[in-house]
């Protein structure tokens, strides 16, 4: 048993200073400081923040990229990278390349992360429609294969996608939703939105006249442009979730990307419900590197963009901190219908992150009651 004391607790809503008792992989008590007398190891977290482990809704743990040849693929990611970024629930996906990077490889990677302590999930499918699957059937994947919680990222408004029709996307959404209903968890289609002028038009067309809720289609990369952000705000107002990509580069910003803090504020000012906004890292995805206007290579997006954003908001835009935290925890868990992630609650799974604002870093991380990072030291 562990008693974490002295921290400012966010569940992700602010709860003030609490003592949190963990036993058997669960949170068993959240009480006023000093009110518990138990035989447990005490962790003094005075001056630190205790928050839920991050739910990173879009990652590429078996690597991404590949446009331009095999040499342009990013490397597989290791568990330590996620742990040091405070991520307890990475959601793995394929991207453009679903041939050299297969669902079998992704499944093995995700199961390996589970074996090393993370509560990892994965998405079936890829950019392509019809969507590839593990079992030959999307609904069957979600219903029968434990880490699969949805499909994605399916590409629209992007020349690298297979240009699906609204009817094809509607059918895929219905199959995915059915799998989630049967499984009692998951059932969401994560949509990669490219830089094309059609933006979210295909999503609107797919939902219009159907019995599907907008929440089954979950667009990401919505901070590519102000025009796309404005459409994303409307999508959220209609009941959908929208995802901001936190990882970016100066070159992408110069080309029109909106930084995560600016995107979050713009969505809120446009009336988007805060609980419908999420933030993910696109970890493992390829980011171009230019020198004097020439493509020199690629770097990989990193999950540490998420805690870095939280720390910068805490220092410079504190009014956005709690909203961004919910966007990395409770909200993506809700969007992907993950029943045991994204919150700190009595009886809930002990996925806990301790942030140290004074040191501007991730201090410790617990997943299902087990320390994976303690005082900055990786324990894997």
TrEMBL record:
Its cofactor is Zn(2+). Residues 50-371 form the Amidohydrolase-related domain. Pfam families: Amidohydro_1. Gene3D superfamilies: Metal-dependent hydrolases, Urease, subunit C, domain 1. InterPro entries: Amidohydro-rel, Metal-dep_hydrolase_composite, Metal_Hydrolase, Metallo-dep_Hydrolases_sf. This is Amidohydrolase family protein. It comes from Congregibacter brevis. The lineage of its organism: Bacteria, Pseudomonadati, Pseudomonadota, Gammaproteobacteria, Cellvibrionales.
């Amino acid at each position: 048993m562990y008693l974490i004391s002295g921290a400012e607790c966010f569940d992700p809503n602010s709860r003030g200073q609490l003592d949190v008792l963990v036993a058997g992989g669960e949170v068993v008590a959240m009480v006023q400081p000093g009110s518990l007398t138990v035989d447990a190891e005490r962790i003094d977290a005075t001056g630190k923040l205790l928050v839920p482990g991050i739910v990173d809704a879009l990652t590429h743990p078996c690597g991404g990229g590949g446009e331009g040849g095999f040499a342009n693929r990013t490397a597989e990611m290791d568990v330590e990278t996620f742990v040091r970024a405070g991520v307890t629930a990475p959601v793995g996906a394929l991207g453009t390349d679903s041939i050299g990077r297969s669902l079998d490889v992704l499944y093995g990677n995700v199961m390996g992360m589970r074996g090393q302590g993370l509560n990892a999930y994965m998405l079936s499918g890829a950019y392509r429609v019809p969507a590839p699957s593990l079992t030959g059937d999307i609904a069957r994947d979600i219903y029968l294969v434990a880490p699969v919680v949805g499909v994605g990222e399916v590409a629209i408004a992007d020349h690298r996608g297979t240009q699906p029709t609204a009817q094809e996307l509607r059918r895929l959404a219905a199959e995915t939703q059915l799998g989630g209903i049967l499984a009692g968890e998951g059932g969401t289609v994560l949509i990669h939105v490219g830089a094309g002028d059609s933006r979210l038009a295909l999503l609107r067309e797919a939902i219009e006249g159907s019995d599907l809720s907008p929440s089954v289609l979950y667009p990401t990369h919505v901070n590519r442009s102000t025009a796309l952000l404005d459409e994303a705000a409307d999508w959220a107002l209609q009941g959908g979730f929208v995802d901001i990509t936190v990882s970016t580069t100066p070159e992408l910003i110069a080309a029109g990307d909106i930084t995560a803090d600016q995107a979050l504020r713009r969505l809120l000012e446009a009336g988007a419900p805060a609980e419908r906004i999420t933030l993910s890292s696109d970890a493992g995805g390829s980011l171009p590197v230019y020198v004097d206007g020439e493509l020199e290579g690629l770097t990989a997006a990193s999950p540490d963009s998420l805690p870095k954003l939280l720390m910068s908001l805490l220092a410079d835009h504190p009014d956005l901190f709690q909203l961004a935290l919910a966007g990395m925890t409770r909200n993506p868990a809700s969007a992907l219908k993950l029943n045991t992630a994204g919150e700190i609650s009595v009886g809930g799974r002990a996925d806990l992150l301790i942030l140290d604002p004074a040191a501007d870093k991730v201090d410790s991380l617990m997943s299902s009651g087990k320390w994976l990072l303690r005082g900055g030291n990786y324990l894997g």
